[in-house]
Amino acid sequence: MQTNFSLAALADPALQASEKILRTCVHCGFCTATCPTYLELGDELDSPRGRIYLIKKMFEEGEAATKEVVTHIDRCLSCLSCMTTCPSGVDYMHLVDHARAHIEATYRRPWHQRAMRALLANLLPYPRRFRLALLGAMLARPFAALIGRLPVLGKSMGAMLALAPRTVPARSAFEGPGVFSPLGARKARVALLSGCAQSVLAPNINAATIRVLNRLGVEIVVPEDEGCCGALVHHMGREAQSHAQAKHMIDVWSREIARAEAEGARLEAIIITASGCGTTIKDYAHMFRGDPLYAEKAARISALAKDITEYLADKPLEAARPTGQVVAYHSACSMQHGQKITEAPKMVLRKLGFIVKDVPEGHICCGSAGTYNMLQPEISGRLRARKTKNITRLKPELIATGNLGCMTQIALGLEEKGTPVPVRHTIELVDWALGGN
Ligand code: SF4
Ligand code: SF4
How many domains does the chain have? Predict the structure, then answer.
């Protein structure tokens, strides 16, 4: 694609990087066939190619984002399905990240959008606040349908309440910070990202991870002062907040690396159990590539980051319980498109005796996408229904996935359809098969 930027504009490294990405797009349109919003809405401007065109125009003109650009970029799920499809290797992820940051810096959203986005950005990444908010949501949940009919904020608030759990799980005995050591000899040491929203909504995911790794002789460190990895606000274009959160985590993990080295040990990996977080942490190296203080540390952290199933892929696993259940495996977009992890989760489950089935149209997003299901409830609802229909076609006994957002979204879809099937994190099934809770 030909671009038209002035030399002065290209002095900005971020713009220079985006211009380079824009030039790789050849307009072929292959990506439209796998873009969930194009499939649902049928509008070229809601396709990757259309969005690339809008972003190009916005950056070339060097002006504030317009309502049209914001509408179509906001509808993008950042699912990255287009990147898997694109034969020219267009780095849409970093292009849309840049566009979102530009929107955030130059566009004044209507008050209700600002309020909703500020609420999400100041609640979800902070477990204590989030837990309190969930207690409030529990009380308001029975009125979700009524609240959903309120003008302006109703739809988003209704969607948020529908996704809230009926009860807030009790804190887990495995909640960090702390060191969780295996009973026998220590074969390796890893750090675990316990996560922000996940640690409140589904503490059993971390507990299962710790039990499984301990059984394998792996010591787990949940570092003190852990915070959010920055993924949630990153996708909202809140660059300063996401970079601050990312830098904090880089410092936290760098201290753990140094501590291990001081003890003559080695931190073998940073284990991630939410693929949305994994994609962002693996991108720290790119995020801070121009930062003299953080570039090296960030690259080290990105290199250590591993999804739990990636880490388990070459480990000996033997079921201690009768398995053989039919499991529909839903591959989160951040897992398959963001991190290109496609086989490891299924392989791990199969090794333990589960019958794993791929979901038809598995490359299409379930509509969760971080905060998308609260910010774009209508499109998200359509994608949820589409995903649920595809999953139920398999008649599974269980559904497994590696991202809490997808778990919540799919469980709600099944509930709406009246065919609830247990939705579990992959590591919970591994833990159960190995004899855990
Ligand atoms: S990231 Fe997903 S929703 Fe956005 S343009 Fe690409 S395929 Fe479409
Ligand atoms: S498939 Fe790739 S090269 Fe073709 S239009 Fe889409 S982004 Fe551009």
Answer: 4
Mutate to test the pocket of ligand 2, among 20, 22, 31 (most ligand atoms within 8 A of CB): 31
- The 326-330 sheet, strands edge to edge: 355-358, 326-330, 398-401, 423-425
Dihedrals phi, psi of 34, to nearest 5 degrees: -120, 15
Same domain, 203 and 244: yes
Q: Indicate which CATH number applies to the domain containing 332.
A: 3.40.50.1860
For 7-34, how does the pLDDT look when each residue is reduced to its tens digit (9 = 90+)? 999 999 999 999 999 999 999 999 999 9
Residues 290 and 383 in one domain: no
Each residue's pLDDT tens digit, 228-244: 999 999 999 999 999 99
In a domain, 388, yes or no: yes
Other CB atoms closer than 10 Å to residue 95's CB: what's the count?
A: 24
Q: What dihedral do alpha carbons 80, 82, 83, 88 form, nearest 10°?
A: -160
- What is the extent of the structural domain holding 381? 326-433
264 and 196 belong to one structural domain = yes
Instruction: Answer yes or no: pTM beyond 0.85.
Output: yes
Tell me, yes or no, whether 204 and 300 share the same domain. Answer: yes
Tokens at residue 158, please?
């209704």
Mutational pocket test of ligand 2: of 27, 84, 90, 363, the residue with most ligand atoms within 8 Å of the beta carbon: 90
